[in-house]
Amino acid sequence: MNDFMNIAIKEAEIAYNEGNVPVGAVIVKDNEIIASSHNKKNTSNVSVYHAEILCIIEACKSLKSWHLDDCTMYVTLKPCKMCNAAIGESRIKNVFYLLNSNYSENLDKNISNVKYTKIDCDTKYFSLVSDFFKELRNL
Fold first, then answer.
1. What's the angle, vertex CA 100, arms to CA 51 and CA 33, rounded to 5?
2. Are 85 and 111 in contact, with CB atoms under 8 Å apart?
């Protein structure tokens, strides 16, 4: 697994520790990180504060442009339909992810021209997601 995904996992750990679904995202351009973030939906009480959305906002501010054509996203969980649309709208072409999500099962391929590539999941991240949902069910 590459360094960019490891940073996305660290972001997911922050989300977990804050009580959010453990998802982290990183956006890279020219082999340099220009943005990183994690889910903040639960703690902010804002439904659209997904890691991918927050990361896109940060990247756009960093580049002073909404065109992220030459950027790649690394995200721990395959994006939902909302995030898929935002990724496509920002023109990111490649997304690497670790785990599929129930929310990403039926992504409409026509929303964007994004190429999704699943990479081998880190057992540490898999455990983090499992633990989060086990804890959630026990509340």
1. 40
2. yes
Residues β-bridged to residue 25: 37, 75
d(CA 10, CA 68): 23
Over its length of 139 residues, how does the chain's per-residue pLDDT go in tens digits?
A: 689 999 999 999 999 999 999 999 999 999 999 999 999 999 999 999 999 999 999 999 999 999 999 999 999 999 999 999 999 999 999 999 999 887 655 555 545 688 999 998 767 888 888 888 888 777 5
The active-site residue, picked from 11, 13, 32, 52, is 52
89 is catalytic: no
Write out the two tokens for 61: 């501010």
Tokens of 15: 């989300």
Token pair of 114 as six digits:
């994004």
- Encoded tokens for 108: 């409409």
User: Taking the model in full, what pTM does it have?
Assistant: 0.90
In this structure, are residues 132 and 21 in contact, taking their beta carbons and an 8 Å threshold? yes
